[in-house]
Amino acid sequence: MDVEQMPVMETKEKFLWKAKLAQEANRFEDMARYMRQVAECGAPMTKDEDNMLAAAYKHVLDTKRSSRRTLVTVEQKDGITSWEATVARHYRARIDEELRALCTEVLTVVDSWLTSDQPEASDPATGVFYWKLSADYHRYAAEVIEDPGDRAEVVAMSKAAYERADRLGRKNLRPIDPIRLGLMLNYSVFLYQVCQQRRQGHDVAKHAFDEAVAEIDAIDDSMYDDSTLILRLIRDNLTIWIQENGGESYAGTAEDQAAAAPVAQAVVREDLLAVEDRVQTDLVATAAVTTPSILLSLSSSTGTVESQSDRDRQSLQDNVN
């Protein structure tokens, strides 16, 4: 019997098993294809399956974004001949097409959930997760759109999705929840880097950091590792952004500057620094965790999160993204 002729649940389980096999083999393009087929079966997906879908596509995306950044660097390299620059530009254009196609594919799956009859109220965390995915992949698509008008339209769609996820998260999730923290991390980077609204990006990150720190002592053990790791990433961004602003807080007042200054040295709890080595390893990578075992432990709750410790570092971990 062909896969297409099998009952929906049986078909879903077979695609899911293939996706897990592809993950073990580090074949993430295959994993993404199988997880798309899982989603298209129409059967409800679990949170772990949602995270597998996001993580698979994030691995593929990060590889292509890294390739694109390399080619842009080559195009701008001193001493490169016009012929070499043309070849690099055409090669980069091909990767841009692949990135646009990938984003369209993910957004098709995401939109099918967002327009389905699955009410956000029954599982607000899943609603936040999918609105964040929508925002993230519209942003990734905007990175490779050259027409200013088209890019502005896609950026606006990304911002609207981030705002929708933010409203839903604030209403239903605790500030220390890793799904909400991951959203605020990506949203703040979007405002700061894509929209060039640096003060707004700083303020979103600082507010999310402060709210989460206030609840750190009441955090559930199941959330602790993911939440403290994302807090570390938010803190790193705040430190970098303050440095880029000449060492001053974007808030501008003496009181706000005094509150922001200790961010670089702040210790949420002693255990927060215990994850520092793992975080630094993730920062050196382009964004995705490198082993299936780590991926599964992180993707249980966080969703793809990103950060920015320099211009080459795009996203960081995840489900991480």
Automatic annotation (TrEMBL):
Entry-linked Gene3D superfamilies: 14-3-3 domain (1.20.190.20)
Database matches in CDD domains: 14-3-3
Chain intervals for the UniProt region annotation (Disordered): 300-321
Residues of the 14-3-3 domain: 12-252
One Pfam family named in its UniProt record: 14-3-3
InterPro entries: 14-3-3, 14-3-3_dom_sf, 14-3-3_domain
Similarity annotation: Belongs to the 14-3-3 family.
PANTHER family given in the database record: 14-3-3 PROTEIN (PTHR18860)
Protein name per Swiss-Prot or TrEMBL: 14-3-3 domain-containing protein
Species this chain originates from: Macrosiphum euphorbiae (potato aphid)
